[in-house]
Amino acid sequence: MKSNKKNIVLVGIQWGDEGKAKIIDHLAEGADVVVRFQGGNNAGHTIVVGNEKTVLHLIPSGILHKNTTNVIGNGVVFDMAVFLEEKRRLQSKGVDVSANRLKVSEICHVIFPFHQLLDRARETAKTKIGTTGRGIGPAYGDKAMRLGLRLGSFRDPQWARERCELAYQDKALALKEMGQTQIPPFDEVFTSAVQAFREVEPHLIDSSRYLIEQSKLGKQILFEGAQGTLLDIDYGTYPYVTSSNTTAGFAACGSGLGPAKLDFVLGLTKAYTTRVGSGPFPTECLVAGEDLDAGKYMAQKGNEFGSTTGRPRRCGWLDLVALKRAIALNSVHGLALSKLDVLSGLPKVRVATHYEISGKRTQDFPNFWIEDVKPLYEDLPGWEPFPGTCKESDLPKSSLHFLKRIEDYTGVPIVMISTGQKREEMIIRDPQFKI
Ligand code: IMO
Ligand code: MG
């Protein structure tokens, strides 16, 4: 049976933590397959159902919907221990995580403990990116250096052992040079990887062939981005970025389904901006007084603490300059906006419409961050608090004005608005996203 439902790629268009899991959870209700295509367990995706909160780092956020099959695509770097632990946690909540609905690409590259050690050791004052410490960068590094190990390689333990030892020695040397001598012995690392692999193996598939086949059957496929566009390794605020391409085009590379099958790109932004870790953030609220207070207000009301590392997130105003760039990079068809409720109660709400760089006014998001970038703001009236809702008629007038300003600036319609943490607190403006 052929359905007329479009395949959707959901990407964060800020610095991550836009609330992707909630949108995926909503769309998954009517979808067949949910796919993660990049990143790893550096992601922290939170879903709230009733009073129960589920945080996922590696397993796709579609897993809570019985009708879906969930796929971890080849673009993901895969920590076997984290996968098994996450699986166990879901299982204990009664979620079906059997191999027929939770599938992993056999060509995912493996994150080993030595990748984590190196990730953390590199975070010295001179080279601090503020990573999540999960070994993401070194694992992608090994993949690019042709030193990586793909999950399916463990089917031939002797071969895997030789390759793994090469990768281990390379990392051990680097660690020793940095003065770190407490590295677990190779045998220990390899033995526990082999043990974990036995449990992971039943989940392995060729994700590309699987997704192509599902697509031919007319199944609807959702792609769940991790991190955000401004953390993209090419287009983000390099070097303060993650180690993968987080933009929509990578949904094809990281899953093995061809790019012509990516029908609709949904770009997700918060009503304001947050960032964890170091790096440029022009609209960060740092000026003592009203500005700093607004930032603290967002942090507290929006509970802005990283769900992976627990670090407080830096907070600031919505940056339309960055948003417009991200929309173009992803060819976003429609916008989803989260946390509209968090901004309520502020006397005024600001949006950055331009930057001033070396005395020049621009609407271009820079590729380099050498000069000081000063945001130029437009002030909009604030709005009173409103209860989490699924009806647009419940929204205060000034908040509608804010939404309209974003649409006018970017030229892209806002099709979904999240007004609270709960599943039902979501306004759907475009009928194709109604479930
Ligand atoms: P989700 O999917 C926000 C940030 C880290 C750091 C940089 C590099 O929940 O939106 P890494 O460990 O990837 O090498 O760290 O990227 N970062 C995220 N920030 N949300 C995320 O994921 C992130 N994943 C990585 O804080 O600045
Ligand atoms: Mg997150």
Q: In words, what does this structure look like?
A:
The structure is a single chain. With 435 residues, the chain is α/β, with parallel strands linked by helices. The chain has 3 domains: 8-105 and 203-265, Adenylosuccinate Synthetase, Chain A, domain 1 (3-Layer(aba) Sandwich), CATH 3.40.440; 109-200, Orthogonal Bundle (Adenylosuccinate Synthetase, subunit A, domain 2), CATH 1.10.300; 269-433, Adenylosuccinate Synthetase, Chain A, domain 3, CATH 3.90.170.10. It has 12 helices and 20 strands. It has helices at residues 20-28, 80-92, 113-121, 136-144, 157-177, 186-200, 207-216, 250-253, 290-301, 320-330, 340-343, 397-410, and strands at residues 8-12, 33-36, 45-49, 52-56, 69-72, 77-78, 102-105, 109-110, 204-205, 221-224, 264-270, 273-275, 314-316, 318-319, 334-338, 348-357, 360-362, 373-381, 414-418, 426-428. The strands form 5 sheets. Strands 9-7-5-2-10-1-11-15-19-20 form a 10-stranded mixed beta sheet, sandwiched between helices. β3 and β4 (52-56) form a beta hairpin. The longest helix has 21 residues, at 157-177. The chain is globular and about 65 Å long. Magnesium ion (MG) is lined by residues 16-17, 43-45, 307. 6-O-phosphoryl inosine monophosphate binds at residues 12, 15-17, 42-45, 129-132, 134, 136-137, 226-228, 231, 242-243, 276-277.
